[in-house]
Automatic annotation (TrEMBL):
<feature type="transmembrane region" description="Helical">
    <location>
        <begin position="464"/>
        <end position="482"/>
    </location>
</feature>
<keyword id="KW-0812">Transmembrane</keyword>
<feature type="transmembrane region" description="Helical">
    <location>
        <begin position="572"/>
        <end position="598"/>
    </location>
</feature>
<keyword id="KW-0472">Membrane</keyword>
<dbReference type="InterPro" id="IPR043748">
    <property type="entry name" value="DUF5693"/>
</dbReference>
<protein>
    <submittedName>
        <fullName>Uncharacterized protein</fullName>
    </submittedName>
</protein>
<feature type="transmembrane region" description="Helical">
    <location>
        <begin position="494"/>
        <end position="518"/>
    </location>
</feature>
<feature type="transmembrane region" description="Helical">
    <location>
        <begin position="398"/>
        <end position="413"/>
    </location>
</feature>
<feature type="transmembrane region" description="Helical">
    <location>
        <begin position="604"/>
        <end position="624"/>
    </location>
</feature>
<keyword id="KW-1133">Transmembrane helix</keyword>
<feature type="transmembrane region" description="Helical">
    <location>
        <begin position="371"/>
        <end position="392"/>
    </location>
</feature>
<feature type="transmembrane region" description="Helical">
    <location>
        <begin position="425"/>
        <end position="444"/>
    </location>
</feature>
<dbReference type="Pfam" id="PF18949">
    <property type="entry name" value="DUF5693"/>
</dbReference>
<feature type="transmembrane region" description="Helical">
    <location>
        <begin position="345"/>
        <end position="364"/>
    </location>
</feature>
Length: 630
């Protein structure tokens, strides 16, 4: 009966493997299409904010400033809607608080009745910006003209600090001068918190300003204009006008995801680079890495500002030139564009649904039990159908998370290993194949421009993928370590008295686990020596492999495979360490805004270097076993 069940399971496994192979063929075009969209989009631009260039224009010859910046690689300038605060800083108006105005009237020997208790007084210094009409259109009846000492002042009643920040409109003469310089212009969308009811005219002006040189929008502040109720409406209007949205890396204003989706994810990823906060060579490295590794296609350069104008210009221009000079040759400086639209076909959808279901069944069946495998596969199928047919985004993300957690466990836990080099290499190859199959499902499930452009939350559960497979592997191999069934051991451990040594060891283990988790992901930290080593690897290899993969995870895994039959306890411990390598490469591909090409090259480097280091480690182990242990 047992033999019959085993034969039946072998037959089922054979058909499930055939289903997985066929489904991989079905999803291959979708993966290829995503790679092609990423590879074809290799033009980046460098932009600077006009308000920071303006300080240079006031002290240096204007033509020289623009000439040097364009020669350094500047392609684009961002401008914000003018406010009374910005007009005062650029010398176009004089602003007085109400108390200051009253003191001024006393000095001028002027008497004015019925002055508001609070407000702002505006005195125009030139006519380069249509100030009066903008004030009346923005503040309405709150604006009053007043004569004093033969001059006209404008009093705006209300909170002076808020009045200063209300957007009045874009300076169209300024935009025209920038276009004459051969530069592209990015309009910065006002912060919703600074806008009043009349500010809708500024959003309408954005529509009217669209042309071949002005076609990108960059949100500013904490809330996108129109937030919370009208974001989608304006997004649709700006999409119809032909605008592209810039999304700043590591920052998301409230309403940005809604705006991006309303604009059909016509999004270009932007990295803001503040040169004052980095050393010049570090700034260059950060900029290049952003372009080639994270689908960034716009660099927002915040120039040096701490020295005098000439030094600030010289240092900024030097860094910009170095960025262009050291950028890989297959990237071109120019007019950045959103990624070409990609959509998953119905064939690819069918492929990943049936393939992921079969994959989950095989994985859980090999790790736990047939009953659990059936439950897990059924849950995968239901969630996949809910995500694809009912368009429940969270359901697909749940399936992707499940596959991401199961894959490294399935890959790292060998079913059986033949002794010697041949068995070790075959088991290593098996783990590689399983990992890439799981990766294929993940990148096909979470598919589309919103993931490439990192609109919204992307893949959820990165930290879980770093922790759960490790814990699961410990549970799976613990019987090998303790040399007895798990349940009796846990009962005995539960009744065992707790000593100070147990507490100390627990704290050490928890501290190591916390350090491991905190180092993972974008917010992880590393020592200066490790950072220097990473930089060298990147210079030599184009993209650096992950340290925890090629120096720790994969060498430990190869040694585990080699010793597992002779020294089960040592092999079990090394399998847990080796799991780090497999879960790390899964995590590499769950960062969906990283180009597939980069993730693939990085992983192949890790697997290759890990193999060589693992072979060396096995030779060391054999020597120690022969010369020392025996």
């Amino acid at each position: 009966m047992v033999e019959s069940n085993e034969e039946g399971m072998k037959h089922v496994k054979k058909w499930l493997l055939i289903i997985i192979a066929l489904s991989l063929l079905l999803i291959a075009p979708a993966i290829s299409k995503r790679h092609q969209a990423e590879w074809d989009n290799r033009t980046y631009e460098m932009m600077m904010p006009y308000d920071e260039i303006e300080a240079w224009l006031q002290e240096e010859k204007e033509e020289d400033v623009w000439k040097q910046l364009k020669e350094a690689g500047l392609t684009t300038v961002s401008i914000e809607a003018e406010t009374l605060d910005s007009l005062e800083q650029s010398g176009h108006v004089l602003l007085l608080k109400m108390d200051e105005w009253k003191h001024t009237l006393v000095l001028l020997n002027e008497t004015v009745a019925h002055l508001p208790s609070r407000g702002l007084v505006v005195y125009p210094l030139d006519e380069t910006f249509p100030l009066v009409s903008s004030l009346k259109a923005t503040f309405g009846d709150d604006v009053q003209a007043m004569q004093a000492n033969g001059k006209t002042y404008y009093i705006i009643e209300g909170n002076a600090k808020k009045i200063e920040r209300v957007p009045l409109g874009y300076d169209e003469m300024k935009i025209a001068r920038l276009i004459e310089q051969g530069l592209m212009v990015v309009l910065r969308i006002p912060d919703a918190r600074d806008m009043n009811e009349a500010s809708v005219r500024v959003l309408q002006q954005i529509e009217a300003l669209k042309n071949e040189h002005t076609f990108k929008l960059l949100p500013t502040g904490e809330e996108v204009a129109g937030y919370p109720t009208d974001v989608a409406k304006w997004g649709e209007r700006w999409k119809e006008a032909g605008y592209v949205l810039l999304s700043t890396e590591f920052y998301e204003a409230k309403g940005l995801t809604t705006l991006a989706k309303a604009m059909d994810v016509h999004v270009v990823r932007l990295h803001s680079l503040n040169l004052e906060q980095r050393k010049p060579n570090e700034a260059v490295d950060v900029a290049i890495r952003a372009i080639k590794e994270r689908n960034i296609r716009a660099l927002f350069i915040r120039p040096y500002a701490s020295a005098d104008t000439e030094q600030n210009m010289e240092k900024t221009i030097t860094v910009m030139k170095q960025i262009v000079q050291h950028m890989p040759s297959h990237y071109t400086l120019g007019k950045s564009e959103p990624f070409a639209p990609i959509e998953r076909s119905s064939i690819a959808t069918i492929g990943f649904v049936i393939g992921a279901t079969a994959f989950v069944f095989l994985a859980v069946r090999s790790l736990v039990s047939p009953m659990m495998a059936s439950l897990a596969a059924g849950g995968t199928l239901i969630l996949s159908v809910a995500g694809t047919v009912l368009a429940i985004d969270l359901a697909l993300k749940a399936v992707a998370l499940l596959v991401a957690i199961i894959t490294p466990i399935y890959a790292a836990k060998p079913s059986s290993v033949q002794e010697g080099w041949r068995g070790t290499f075959m088991a290593y190859g098996r783990a590689i194949a399983i990992s890439f199959v799981g990766i294929s499902w993940i990148v096909t499930m979470l598919y589309g421009n919103e993931y490439m452009a990192y609109v919204g939350e992307g893949f959820r559960g990165v930290k879980l993928v770093y922790v759960v497979p490790l814990v699961a592997m410990v549970v799976l191999v613990l019987p090998w370590m303790i040399r007895e069934p798990l349940l009796p051991f846990m009962k005995r451990l539960w009744k065992h008295p707790i000593t100070i040594g147990h507490v100390v060891i627990s704290f050490v283990v928890l501290a190591l686990l916390a350090y491991y988790v905190l180092r993972s992901g974008n917010t992880g930290t590393a020592s200066a020596l490790e950072l220097a080593a990473r930089q060298k690897l990147e210079e030599w290899l184009y993209v650096r492999p992950r340290t925890k993969e090629f120096l720790l995870g994969f060498p430990a895994y190869l040694l585990a495979l080699f010793v597992i039959n002779k020294q089960k306890q040592l092999g079990a411990i090394l399998l847990v360490v080796g799991t780090i390598g497999w879960l790390s490469i899964i995590n590499t591909f769950t960062h969906l805004h990283i180009p597939l090409f980069i993730s693939f090259v990085r992983t192949m480097y890790s697997l290759g270097l890990g193999l060589f280091i693992g072979i060396a480690l096995i030779h060391v182990y054999k020597w120690v076993w022969k010369k020392v242990i025996r």
